[in-house]
UniProtKB/TrEMBL annotation:
Its EC number is 2.2.1.2. It holds the Pfam family TAL_FSA. This is Probable transaldolase. The gene is fsa. The active site is at K83 (schiff-base intermediate with substrate). Keywords: Cytoplasm, Pentose shunt, Schiff base, Transferase. Transaldolase is important for the balance of metabolites in the pentose-phosphate pathway. Its main location: cytoplasm. Pathway: Carbohydrate degradation; pentose phosphate pathway; D-glyceraldehyde 3-phosphate and beta-D-fructose 6-phosphate from D-ribose 5-phosphate and D-xylulose 5-phosphate (non-oxidative stage): step 2/3. It comes from the Bacteria. It catalyses: D-sedoheptulose 7-phosphate + D-glyceraldehyde 3-phosphate = D-erythrose 4-phosphate + beta-D-fructose 6-phosphate. It is found in: Cytoplasm.
Length: 215
């Protein structure tokens, strides 16, 4: 499973990118708004840090508006992937963009049927939201498993991005299920990295080393 970071915060992206573990970034309008900066400026800066797919989301709700935004966004950098909501108009836009060779990430996917429609419309990626399904007492990870099964049975090459990842168990379960990608917030990367036995192990090694030096 490949790892993307789910943030528009430049410091977070730089830090995790230095670890060498991510190969893409996803943003959404809420994440961009949190940064309080110009949308295109932020996206452009992200493309200068991470050399991989960078999802930038359209705001329009109609096909023509989405297409206009998408065609502007792709001018920023060849790695831009247009994030489009899972609606009728969204599917129409995805269908046109895929014929133009523009990559799309269909977002706000909450069922396997939505994922199938997005894939058939030509989406490069689908983003099922695990955490938001858990929030309403649905088993988010089950949706990921079902989409993987459907795509495997029918040889669909649209990549599945496990999104709305809220904690390390989500990341682990998505990896075990076989999601192609998980897009993970900074906080969860830190949680995945941390282990108390690693910290106490380093303390002990250093203590023992210092005993040797004082002899
Ligand atoms: C995915 O691309 C979204 O940006 C994101 O994963 C949503 O996560 P949330 O449900 O924690 O806001």
């Amino acid at each position: 499973m490949k790892l993307f970071i789910d943030t528009a915060n430049i410091d977070e992206i730089k830090e995790i990118n230095e670890w060498g573990v991510i190969c893409g970034v996803t943003t959404n309008p809420s994440l961009i708004a949190k940064e309080g900066r110009d949308f295109k400026e932020v996206v452009e800066e992200i493309t200068s840090i991470v050399d991989g797919p960078i999802s930038a989301e359209v705001i329009s709700l109609d096909k023509d508006g989405m297409l206009k935004e998408a065609r502007e966004l792709v001018k920023i950098h060849p790695n831009i992937v247009i994030k489009i909501p899972m609606t009728k108009e969204g599917l129409k836009a995805v269908s046109v963009l895929s014929k133009e060779g523009i990559k799309t990430n269909v977002t706000l996917v909450f069922s396997p049927n939505q994922a199938l429609l997005a894939a058939r419309a030509g989406a490069s990626y689908v983003s099922p939201f695990v955490g938001r399904l858990d929030d309403i007492s649905n088993e988010g990870m089950r949706i990921i498993e079902d989409i993987i099964q459907v795509f495997n049975v029918h040889n669909i090459d649209t990549e599945i991005i496990a999104a709305s990842i809220r904690h390390p168990i989500h990341a682990l379960d998505a990896a075990k299920a076989g999601a192609h990608i998980a897009t993970i917030p900074y906080k969860v990367f830190i949680q995945m990295l941390s282990h108390p036995l690693t910290d106490s192990g380093i303390d002990k090694f250093l203590k023992d080393w210092n005993v040797l030096q004082s002899k």
